[in-house]
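Write out this protein's structure.
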Amino acid sequence: MNKMTRRQHAQAQAKTLNPTLWIITVLTAFGLMIAFIAQSHARSAPESFADLAEKLLPAVVNISTTQKVDAAHGQLPQGVPDFFREFFERRGGQMPQQRQRQATSLGSGFVIDAQAGLIVTNNHVIQDAEEIKVILQDNTSLDAELLGKDPKTDIALLKVEKKKGVKLIEVSLGNSDKTRVGDWVVAIGNPFGLGGSVTAGIVSARGRNIQAGPYDDFIQTDASINKGNSGGPLFNLNGDVIGINTAIYSPSGGSVGIGFSVPSNIAKTVIADLQEYGRTRRGWLGVRIQTVSDEIAENLGLEDARGALVTSVAEGGPAEKAKIQKGDVILTFNGKGVSEMRKLPRIVAETEVGKSVPVKVWRKGKIKKLSVKVGELEVAEKNGSVGKPKVTKTSATLKELGLSLGSLNDQLRERFKLPEEASGVVILNVVADGPAAQKGIRAGELIVEVSQKEITSPDEVKKAVKKAKKEKQKSLLLLIDGEEGLRFVAVKLAK
């Protein structure tokens, strides 16, 4: 046999290679090429923010407000900023040599519609202002009127009348949901009255709840934000507004690298309502809710702690009409998952008023599909329907147990100092020397379960007593929630 040359040997080996290896080799090379292209297009920290700042600065404005402070008899009007009130009180509540003066407040804002002269700022910047002035980058001063405000998200919308020769520059609201932790951001505003100040940093966190309102979902940033920055924009590197700078965390009053901005996606809906109606029009469901803890999830048969647990249903509200019940866990609303309790108010608020939407609830170990027609929160607030729970049976007297019961409502919560998350039925009165009294049960405590079944109304307790008597039981097992916490108590049934 003739000896093969090296080239002939290599060709022979190539012919015998497994086709799978060829496919793997090609795919690997293709993957490396894609990774190289992606890396070459990845955005890194810019060498300078100068070009971006030059483009955006003209759209950011200073807000100056004035209000009259009544100093007669050492009194201040409602709405005066806390720092001014503290200054006043430190001086014994006496204003120097005058009965009235002008209090001035400074803040920031930005133009969102140059043609219409629309400017966004914080509600607390213009709150109780008698005069509002907008100062542009070139120090041009324009009078502004308030179109609408929303204290719940701390957003206000202003309108200025354009002067001849004055050109407004606008910026756009971006998609804050695409913002990621670690992204570069730029804040522009009027800190301490020093207009046109630019700071840069990154997004430190998303979805922050700082107890500022019912729809807290703040973007946290370490870009320097100080007093006077309020109402100013937080930009991404595309020049889109992804947040409205609203609050800072600071023991000293100055920036410590923890600032909070209202996400632009929340602001969009609010601004649109303020522009069209002069007020917000939020969706309303008509329920009180609480967090689903791991223990509650386990007891209800949920695989994990998620959703919003309904603790009460407003009488005549959308939830009652949709057959949502106390004890249901709302898992999805309008096709959006409720991963945690505080997500539900925002989802409902952003839903179109009057729209019928699907709702999935967890009830007695099963998912139940319902449909609810969304109401309007502002109308419900005006009518006093918000927080008004549905009352099934207000009270019941059970001689067999020696006590009287009431349905849990706001009046009883206040009377017995019960927490918001309390559930069950309230013990209104305990008969002296009766079966309940002998077991140390007291008025103001709650019956949470009867015979290890959760109860929500006095009628349910009454039915449980009737059933126990029919089955000739001598006692009834109650789960009591009192000052000592939860405890089981077996109460004898009196004849």
